[in-house]
Amino acid sequence: MQSERTTEQWRALDAAHHLHPFTDTESLNQQGARVITKADGVFLWDSDGNKILDGMAGLWCVNIGYGRKDLSEVARRQMDELAYYNTFFKTTHPAVVELSHLLSQVAPEGFSHIFYTNSGSESVDTMIRMVRRYWDVKGKPGKKTLIGRWNGYHGSTIGGASLGGMSYMHEQGDLPIPGIVHVEQPWWYRYGQGMSPEEFGVVAARWVEEKILEVGPDKVAAFVGEPIQGAGGVIIPPSTYWPEVERICRRYDVLLVADEVICGFGRTGEWFGHQLFGFHPDLFTAAKGLSSGYLPIGAVFVGDKVAQGLAEGGDFNHGFTYSGHPVAAAVAHANVKALRDEGIIDRVKHDTGPYMQQRWREAFGGFAHVDDVRGVGLIQAFTLVKDKATHELFPNWGEVGTICRDIFFRHNLIMRACGDHMVAAPPLVISKAEIDQLIDTAVQCVTECEAVLH
Ligand code: PLP
C-alpha cells in the first residue's frame, strides 16, 4: 500500500487505532511497532530501509517466498472475473473445483474431500464440529470429548484455544470449554530422561491411552495433535510415538486428527507432516502454506470414512461466508501447483533441508547454554538451558528466549522464541547461501546472548 507517511507517523497512528494480536499494548506503544513495507524472496524491508532475513516465513506460512508476481496476477484475474460467490446452496465455481481437484492429488490416498475455511483456527473449529457430527450420525452421540496436548497450539478461536494446551491462553476467558481434555506432550528432553527416545515415544503415546480409559472410550471422539508441535517450540516426537498413538486410537475407535497448519505443504520435506512419521489420520487441518499466506484460506482434509459418514447425515450445518472464496482458492491453486511443479518441496527433502539440518547442528552444538539442537526439513530449533549436563532449564521460562530473540531482531534476523526454544522456519525457497547467512547471523547472536547471560 502506497503511503507518504514517515515511520513515526505510522507508529503514532498504529498506537492510536490498532490493537495487535498476542501483544502487550502498553509495551508495544512505548517501543513503537516495526513497520514492514515490502518483501521479496526470503527478505523483508522496514520503513527505515533495513533489510531483514525472515527466518520465520512470516508466521510459518510464506512457504513459496515473498513477491511472486504470478500469484498476484492470478488474484487480479480472478477478481476481474468472479471476485466473490459463495459455495452454499448447491453452488460452486471453477476456482474452488480446480483447487479441490489439485489438493486431492497432492494429499495422500483416501483424502478426496476438502472443506474450506479462512484460517487455521477455523479449520480446527470445523474439525471439532465434524468429528462430533460424525459420531452422531454413526449412532454414538456420547462420543464428544476431544483430547489435545499441553503446549499444543491449535489457534485462537474458543474451540482452537481450548484444544490447544497453552495455559496462558486458557487463563483468559475460562478455557478450555467442556468436552476438551489434554495429555502431556511427547517432549523427550524434558520428560524422557533415563529412557531412549524410542522407549519414551511409547510411554508418551500410552498417556493418550490412559486418558481415553479415564474419560471412557464411548465418550472420546478424537485425539488431535500437530505432527511436530510448532508454536510449542518445535517438539519433534520420537519415531515410535505416532504409530503407537495410531494403534491406540484404532483400538478404542477414536478418530485420529493431525493438525497440519504448520507442518503441511512441505515444511518437513513431505507434503504433510504425518507422512514423515508414517501415520494415517482420519482428518487433517491445514492453512498457512496452502496459500503461502498470500490470501487467507484454510482447509479440512476429510478422509473417506468420515466424508462418507457426514454424507449419510444429510445437512452438515456449518460453513463460512468465505468458504472456498474464489480469489483465495485461485491463489492457493497457483501456489500449490508451483510448490509441486517447481520441485520446491522435493528440494526441501533432498537438498536445502538436509543442508540446513547439518549446518544447524554443527553451528549450535558447541554453545554452553544451547541444547537439544533439532529439526527436519526447514523447521528447526534449539533450547536455551541453564545446565546442559543436568538438562536444567532456566527459571522464568521464556525470559532468556526473549533476550535472545531481541538480539536476533537487532541483527535483522527474525527468529522466534517459544519460551526458551529458539525456532527458525524460513520460506521453503531459501537458498543455501541464504541458509549460510541465517546461520552465521544466528551464531553471532547466540554468542552475544551467552555473553549477556554470564
Ligand atoms: N493450528 C496450528 C498447528 C497452528 O500453528 C496455528 C497457527 O499458528 C493454528 C492452528 C491457527 O491458525 P490461524 O492463526 O490461521 O488461525
TrEMBL record:
<keyword id="KW-0663">Pyridoxal phosphate</keyword>
<dbReference type="InterPro" id="IPR015424">
    <property type="entry name" value="PyrdxlP-dep_Trfase"/>
</dbReference>
<dbReference type="InterPro" id="IPR015422">
    <property type="entry name" value="PyrdxlP-dep_Trfase_small"/>
</dbReference>
<dbReference type="Pfam" id="PF00202">
    <property type="entry name" value="Aminotran_3"/>
</dbReference>
<dbReference type="InterPro" id="IPR015421">
    <property type="entry name" value="PyrdxlP-dep_Trfase_major"/>
</dbReference>
<dbReference type="GO" id="GO:0008483">
    <property type="term" value="F:transaminase activity"/>
</dbReference>
<dbReference type="GO" id="GO:0030170">
    <property type="term" value="F:pyridoxal phosphate binding"/>
</dbReference>
<dbReference type="InterPro" id="IPR049704">
    <property type="entry name" value="Aminotrans_3_PPA_site"/>
</dbReference>
<comment type="similarity">
    <text>Belongs to the class-III pyridoxal-phosphate-dependent aminotransferase family.</text>
</comment>
<keyword id="KW-0808">Transferase</keyword>
<dbReference type="GO" id="GO:0005829">
    <property type="term" value="C:cytosol"/>
</dbReference>
<keyword id="KW-0032">Aminotransferase</keyword>
<dbReference type="InterPro" id="IPR005814">
    <property type="entry name" value="Aminotrans_3"/>
</dbReference>
<protein>
    <submittedName>
        <fullName>Aminotransferase class-III</fullName>
    </submittedName>
</protein>
